[in-house]
Amino acid sequence: TLSKEFKKAPNMIADELLKKIKPTKNISKIEVKGPYLNFFINRELLNEQVITKILKEKNDYGLALKKKEKVMIEYSQPNTHKAFHVGHLRNVCMGDSLIRILKNKGYNVIAANYIGDVGAHIAKCLWYYKKHFKGQIPKNNKGEWLGELYTKAVKKLKEKEAYKEEVSEILKQLESEKNNEIIALWKQTRKWSLDEFKEIYDWLGANFDIYFYESDVEKSGKQLVEKYKKKGLFVKSEGALIMDLKKYDLDVFLVLKSDGTSLYSTKDLSLAVKKFEEYKIDQSLYVVGSEQKMYFKQLFKTLELMGFKNAKNCKHVSYELVMLPDGKMSSRAGNIMLFSELKNEIMKKLEKEVIKRHKDWSMKKVDETAKKIGLGALKFGMLNQDSNRVIIFNLNEWLSFEGETGPYIQYAVARINSIFKKSKGVIGEVNYSMLKSAEEQLLISKLADYPKLVENSADNLRPSMIARYLLELAQGFNEFYHKHQVLKADSEVRGARMALIISIKQVLKNGLSLLGIEAPDEM
To answer: Which domains are present in the chain?
Structure first.
């Protein structure tokens, strides 16, 4: 300590330092308090610097552009022939937000989807359709209908052991591509699912630069496994091919089934190599649920032992489940909330709410506003919690304009728009020294924190940091507005407060856009 070094009492050292340090324009005063030196920030200058920076940079406030690496983020990864439900939304919201956050830091990001269009679940669905389905194919929502067939197939398979052999035969026919009838049926039904996924992504505003399909990497996966089997890396165990990872505390990693059909691992090994070789990326991120943690540890360790140098640049970005209030969702069990049901319910509730508030609006404007609020509610609900926490899905709570919700933050933006409109779009003269209340100073400190917070969110791959920040900023604005006049304040105070709230609106909009949320002008 300085006290030991100079052999003086701390308060004497503080007094001497005070005489030698000259305050700069950023520091209004320096005081000695016992053994401490207290520096006081020039609040007026801070007010001016923060607000003028935001008003000048607008949408670019918080933009870092410090990184140059090329990153691929693989997210969503739905299975065809299964229904898209609420549980799938956390992945989509998280992946989409991470892409926005990393781009904001300057990364060259490739958004990738990896569709599960082969595998046992498809064989089960096609088996049920061929052997047991007697009705009419629906005109709409065919992808969801295939999901219903899959659920029925799972139940039916419990009735007879022989059924499992029939499914196994269909799976072999799909992989060998020798049965034209099965392949044609697979292609037709696969398209139904893919078309439905596209509609869902369009509605959610989620975009992909590239689509990978399990069917495209199945063959190359088997070839890669065969190559490393010959090298002695993969060995036979009870007819299957495995990678023994026990000495790394990672148990045994299955890479090919005993009947010669592929597994997720077969295809993932091939795809991991393909991503780096074909797209020249520096990092590969996999947004996948936490139940796959062990699987990804095994996958990356196997890639490393295969001599794949980029294994160290692969990262699993995990998240916990989304549950309904009465428990876990499962396509197999059929206890899911379908995406189409969710979308219809959101639009129905919000259209009613918007019409109640704005009877003079056209239906087009009502729909557009309801959709923005609905997406804000959904995405914020999925991103507000840290990814290591289970989410209990509660639509009524999430759609509320009050509480810790997306619409609460969107409403703060709409409220500021309304104040600005009443001022006829005029901020007026700004005297930054007028912003001296505790609420105003807290808000300015919060606004100053935004760029660093967004960087931290990118470094930690945590959109929840931005979500929590926006909630606190919106709460801070509402507390300020509850206590202080803006439009009716004296002209000097009015101008400063107008500049402050316009800055708050800008930062709220910037942060929401990183979560994939748009704020309506009016609500």
So the answer is: 2-41 (no CATH), 48-64+349-383+395-514 (1.10.730.10), 75-328 (3.40.50.620)
